[in-house]
Amino acid sequence: MHILLVEDEAKVARFIKEGLTAEGYEVEIAADGKAGEKKARSAEFDLILLDVLLPKKNGFDVLRTLRNEGMRTPVLMLTARSTTEDIVQGLDHGADDYLTKPFAFNELLARIRSLLRRQRNSHTTFRLADLQLDTLTRRATRSGVIIELTAREYSLLEYLMRNQNKLITRQQLAKEIWGFNFDPGTNIIDVYINHLRKKIDREHEPKLLHTERGKGYYISEKDLRKGPAK
Ligand code: CA
Protein backbone atom coordinates (compact mmCIF):
# COMPACT_ATOMS: atom_id res chain seq x y z
CA MET A 1 0.00 0.00 0.00
CA HIS A 2 1.40 3.27 -1.20
CA ILE A 3 0.64 6.42 0.79
CA LEU A 4 1.38 10.05 -0.05
CA LEU A 5 1.89 12.28 2.97
CA VAL A 6 1.67 16.02 2.33
CA GLU A 7 2.97 17.69 5.47
CA ASP A 8 5.29 20.66 5.87
CA GLU A 9 6.40 20.07 9.44
CA ALA A 10 9.44 17.86 8.99
CA LYS A 11 9.24 16.40 12.48
CA VAL A 12 5.60 15.41 12.15
CA ALA A 13 6.19 14.03 8.65
CA ARG A 14 9.11 11.92 9.85
CA PHE A 15 7.13 10.61 12.81
CA ILE A 16 4.19 9.57 10.64
CA LYS A 17 6.41 8.08 7.95
CA GLU A 18 8.38 5.99 10.45
CA GLY A 19 5.23 4.72 12.09
CA LEU A 20 3.53 3.80 8.84
CA THR A 21 6.66 2.21 7.39
CA ALA A 22 6.84 0.00 10.47
CA GLU A 23 3.28 -1.09 9.69
CA GLY A 24 4.29 -2.11 6.18
CA TYR A 25 3.07 0.93 4.26
CA GLU A 26 5.21 2.61 1.66
CA VAL A 27 5.22 6.36 2.31
CA GLU A 28 6.29 9.29 0.17
CA ILE A 29 6.48 12.79 1.61
CA ALA A 30 5.77 16.11 -0.05
CA ALA A 31 6.57 19.21 2.03
CA ASP A 32 4.29 21.80 0.43
CA GLY A 33 0.98 21.99 -1.41
CA LYS A 34 2.40 22.37 -4.90
CA ALA A 35 4.82 19.48 -4.47
CA GLY A 36 2.03 17.34 -3.06
CA GLU A 37 -0.21 18.06 -6.00
CA LYS A 38 2.56 17.18 -8.43
CA LYS A 39 3.39 13.92 -6.67
CA ALA A 40 -0.27 12.95 -6.47
CA ARG A 41 -0.52 13.33 -10.24
CA SER A 42 2.67 11.46 -11.02
CA ALA A 43 1.98 8.21 -9.22
CA GLU A 44 -0.86 5.99 -8.20
CA PHE A 45 -1.33 6.19 -4.45
CA ASP A 46 -3.80 4.12 -2.45
CA LEU A 47 -4.32 6.95 0.00
CA ILE A 48 -3.31 10.57 0.54
CA LEU A 49 -2.77 12.15 3.96
CA LEU A 50 -3.16 15.86 3.40
CA ASP A 51 -2.35 18.60 5.87
CA VAL A 52 -4.52 21.74 5.64
CA LEU A 53 -2.02 24.50 6.46
CA LEU A 54 0.72 24.13 3.89
CA PRO A 55 3.14 26.50 2.19
CA LYS A 56 2.53 27.44 -1.48
CA LYS A 57 -0.98 25.97 -1.70
CA ASN A 58 -3.23 24.94 1.16
CA GLY A 59 -4.66 21.46 1.53
CA PHE A 60 -8.21 22.44 0.61
CA ASP A 61 -7.07 23.99 -2.67
CA VAL A 62 -4.84 21.02 -3.46
CA LEU A 63 -7.74 18.66 -2.85
CA ARG A 64 -10.15 20.69 -4.94
CA THR A 65 -7.70 20.79 -7.85
CA LEU A 66 -7.06 17.05 -7.74
CA ARG A 67 -10.73 16.14 -7.47
CA ASN A 68 -11.53 18.45 -10.37
CA GLU A 69 -8.96 16.55 -12.38
CA GLY A 70 -10.82 13.36 -11.64
CA MET A 71 -8.59 11.88 -8.96
CA ARG A 72 -10.56 9.46 -6.81
CA THR A 73 -7.88 8.36 -4.36
CA PRO A 74 -9.16 8.45 -0.77
CA VAL A 75 -7.97 11.54 1.09
CA LEU A 76 -7.64 11.91 4.84
CA MET A 77 -7.24 15.56 5.84
CA LEU A 78 -4.99 16.39 8.77
CA THR A 79 -6.12 19.60 10.37
CA ALA A 80 -4.64 21.52 13.24
CA ARG A 81 -7.87 23.43 13.58
CA SER A 82 -11.00 21.69 14.64
CA THR A 83 -13.78 24.11 13.91
CA THR A 84 -16.79 22.55 12.25
CA GLU A 85 -16.37 25.01 9.41
CA ASP A 86 -12.99 23.57 8.49
CA ILE A 87 -14.27 20.05 8.62
CA VAL A 88 -17.29 20.86 6.49
CA GLN A 89 -15.07 22.68 4.01
CA GLY A 90 -12.75 19.68 3.78
CA LEU A 91 -15.56 17.23 3.20
CA ASP A 92 -17.12 19.59 0.65
CA HIS A 93 -13.91 19.61 -1.30
CA GLY A 94 -13.92 15.83 -1.53
CA ALA A 95 -12.06 14.65 1.56
CA ASP A 96 -13.09 11.18 2.72
CA ASP A 97 -12.25 11.74 6.35
CA TYR A 98 -10.35 14.11 8.63
CA LEU A 99 -8.26 13.91 11.73
CA THR A 100 -7.54 16.77 14.10
CA LYS A 101 -3.95 17.34 15.23
CA PRO A 102 -2.56 16.33 17.57
CA PHE A 103 -3.74 12.77 17.16
CA ALA A 104 -2.70 9.44 18.59
CA PHE A 105 -0.85 7.32 16.08
CA ASN A 106 -3.24 4.41 16.62
CA GLU A 107 -6.13 6.67 15.70
CA LEU A 108 -4.40 7.52 12.43
CA LEU A 109 -3.80 3.83 11.73
CA ALA A 110 -7.43 2.97 12.39
CA ARG A 111 -8.65 5.70 10.02
CA ILE A 112 -6.23 4.60 7.31
CA ARG A 113 -7.34 0.96 7.58
CA SER A 114 -10.97 1.96 7.44
CA LEU A 115 -10.50 4.11 4.33
CA LEU A 116 -8.52 1.42 2.54
CA ARG A 117 -11.17 -1.14 3.46
CA ARG A 118 -13.92 1.10 2.14
CA GLN A 119 -11.95 1.53 -1.07
CA ARG A 120 -11.54 -2.25 -1.47
CA ASN A 121 -15.21 -2.83 -0.87
CA SER A 122 -16.14 -0.44 -3.62
CA HIS A 123 -14.02 -2.52 -5.98
CA THR A 124 -15.80 -3.27 -9.24
CA THR A 125 -14.84 -4.64 -12.59
CA PHE A 126 -16.73 -3.24 -15.56
CA ARG A 127 -16.93 -5.34 -18.69
CA LEU A 128 -17.97 -4.55 -22.22
CA ALA A 129 -17.15 -7.03 -25.01
CA ASP A 130 -13.47 -7.87 -24.35
CA LEU A 131 -12.80 -4.56 -22.59
CA GLN A 132 -12.36 -4.77 -18.82
CA LEU A 133 -11.86 -2.00 -16.34
CA ASP A 134 -10.81 -2.72 -12.79
CA THR A 135 -11.58 0.15 -10.41
CA LEU A 136 -9.20 -1.08 -7.74
CA THR A 137 -6.06 -1.35 -9.82
CA ARG A 138 -7.43 1.32 -12.20
CA ARG A 139 -6.30 -0.90 -15.01
CA ALA A 140 -7.96 -1.36 -18.37
CA THR A 141 -7.41 -4.34 -20.64
CA ARG A 142 -8.71 -5.34 -24.03
CA SER A 143 -8.45 -9.01 -24.94
CA GLY A 144 -6.27 -9.28 -21.85
CA VAL A 145 -3.74 -6.71 -23.09
CA ILE A 146 -3.11 -3.81 -20.71
CA ILE A 147 -4.06 -0.38 -22.03
CA GLU A 148 -1.95 2.41 -20.53
CA LEU A 149 -4.18 5.29 -19.47
CA THR A 150 -3.44 8.65 -17.92
CA ALA A 151 -5.41 9.54 -14.78
CA ARG A 152 -7.81 11.69 -16.78
CA GLU A 153 -8.32 9.08 -19.49
CA TYR A 154 -9.03 6.55 -16.77
CA SER A 155 -11.67 8.80 -15.18
CA LEU A 156 -13.28 9.36 -18.54
CA LEU A 157 -13.34 5.66 -19.38
CA GLU A 158 -14.65 4.72 -15.94
CA TYR A 159 -17.48 7.23 -16.22
CA LEU A 160 -18.43 5.96 -19.68
CA MET A 161 -18.24 2.32 -18.52
CA ARG A 162 -20.42 3.04 -15.50
CA ASN A 163 -22.95 4.49 -17.90
CA GLN A 164 -22.47 2.09 -20.78
CA ASN A 165 -25.11 2.06 -23.54
CA LYS A 166 -26.20 5.56 -22.52
CA LEU A 167 -25.55 8.76 -24.40
CA ILE A 168 -23.45 11.11 -22.27
CA THR A 169 -23.53 14.78 -23.19
CA ARG A 170 -20.48 17.00 -23.40
CA GLN A 171 -21.92 19.02 -20.51
CA GLN A 172 -22.09 15.91 -18.35
CA LEU A 173 -18.47 15.05 -19.11
CA ALA A 174 -17.35 18.63 -18.54
CA LYS A 175 -18.96 18.54 -15.12
CA GLU A 176 -18.15 14.99 -14.04
CA ILE A 177 -14.61 14.71 -15.34
CA TRP A 178 -13.36 18.28 -15.37
CA GLY A 179 -15.52 19.84 -12.68
CA PHE A 180 -16.84 22.58 -14.95
CA ASN A 181 -20.40 23.65 -14.42
CA PHE A 182 -20.54 24.76 -18.03
CA ASP A 183 -19.34 23.49 -21.38
CA PRO A 184 -15.79 24.88 -21.41
CA GLY A 185 -16.27 25.59 -25.10
CA THR A 186 -12.83 24.25 -25.98
CA ASN A 187 -12.08 21.03 -27.77
CA ILE A 188 -10.51 19.50 -24.67
CA ILE A 189 -13.23 16.85 -24.42
CA ASP A 190 -12.86 15.84 -28.07
CA VAL A 191 -9.11 15.66 -27.64
CA TYR A 192 -9.42 13.28 -24.69
CA ILE A 193 -12.12 11.21 -26.39
CA ASN A 194 -9.84 10.83 -29.43
CA HIS A 195 -6.90 9.75 -27.28
CA LEU A 196 -9.06 7.26 -25.49
CA ARG A 197 -10.58 5.95 -28.71
CA LYS A 198 -7.14 5.32 -30.16
CA LYS A 199 -6.14 3.39 -27.09
CA ILE A 200 -9.18 1.19 -26.73
CA ASP A 201 -10.47 0.82 -30.30
CA ARG A 202 -7.71 1.32 -32.84
CA GLU A 203 -6.51 -2.27 -32.89
CA HIS A 204 -9.71 -3.96 -31.86
CA GLU A 205 -13.17 -4.95 -33.01
CA PRO A 206 -15.94 -4.21 -32.30
CA LYS A 207 -15.46 -0.45 -31.95
CA LEU A 208 -16.80 0.58 -28.55
CA LEU A 209 -16.48 4.34 -28.17
CA HIS A 210 -19.03 6.18 -30.29
CA THR A 211 -19.64 9.84 -31.01
CA GLU A 212 -23.08 11.19 -31.73
CA ARG A 213 -22.29 14.40 -33.50
CA GLY A 214 -23.55 17.48 -31.72
CA LYS A 215 -24.93 15.41 -28.83
CA GLY A 216 -22.27 13.52 -27.00
CA TYR A 217 -20.60 10.16 -26.59
CA TYR A 218 -21.36 6.67 -25.45
CA ILE A 219 -19.65 3.37 -24.99
CA SER A 220 -21.45 0.33 -26.30
CA GLU A 221 -21.02 -2.80 -28.39
CA LYS A 222 -23.70 -1.55 -30.71
CA ASP A 223 -24.41 1.59 -32.64
CA LEU A 224 -27.33 2.99 -30.65
CA ARG A 225 -28.58 5.04 -33.57
CA LYS A 226 -29.47 1.81 -35.36
CA GLY A 227 -31.67 0.66 -32.52
CA PRO A 228 -31.15 -2.33 -30.26
CA ALA A 229 -29.02 -5.17 -31.58
CA LYS A 230 -30.76 -8.36 -32.55
CA1 CA B 1 1.10 22.42 8.32
What is the topological layout?
Layout lengths: L1 E5 L3 H13 L3 E5 L2 H10 L4 E5 L7 H10 L6 E5 L4 H9 L4 E4 L4 H17 L3 E4 L2 E4 L4 E4 L2 E3 L3 H12 L5 E2 H9 L9 H14 L7 E4 L3 E4 L11
Parallel strand pairs: 1-2, 1-3, 3-4, 4-5
Antiparallel strand pairs: 6-7, 7-8, 8-9, 10-12, 11-12
Helix pairs in contact: 2-3, 6-8
Could you provide a short overview of the structure?
This protein has helices at 10-22, 33-42, 59-68, 84-92, 105-121, 151-162, 170-178, 188-201, and strands at 2-6, 26-30, 47-51, 75-79, 97-100, 125-128, 131-134, 139-142, 145-147, 168-169, 209-212, 216-219. The chain has 230 residues and is of the alpha/beta class.
Description:
It is built from 8 helices and 12 strands. It is an alpha/beta fold and 230 residues long. The chain has 2 domains: 2-120, Rossmann fold, CATH 3.40.50; 125-228, Orthogonal Bundle (Arc Repressor Mutant, subunit A), CATH 1.10.10.10. It has a 5-stranded parallel beta sheet, sandwiched between helices. Strands 6-7-8-9 form a 4-stranded antiparallel beta sheet, covered by helices on one side. Bound molecules: calcium ion. Residues 8-9, 51, 53-54 line the site of calcium ion.
Strand content: 15-25%
Number of domains: 2
Bound molecules: calcium ion
Helix content: 40-55%
Query: Helix- and strand-based class?
Result: alpha/beta
Order of neighbouring strands in the sheet with most strands: 2-1-3-4-5
Assigned CATH class of the largest domain: Alpha Beta
Distance between the termini: 46 Å
Number of helices: 8
CATH homologous superfamily of the largest domain? Response regulator
Unreliable stretches, pLDDT < 50, 5 or more residues?
none
Radius of gyration: 20 Å
Count the beta strands: 12
- Spell out the helices and strands N to C: EHEHEHEHEHEEEEHEHHEE
Global shape: elongated
Using the coordinates shown, work out and report the CATH topology of the largest domain: Rossmann fold
CATH A-level architecture of the largest domain: 3-Layer(aba) Sandwich
Biggest sheet, open or closed, and with what strands and sense? 5 strands, parallel
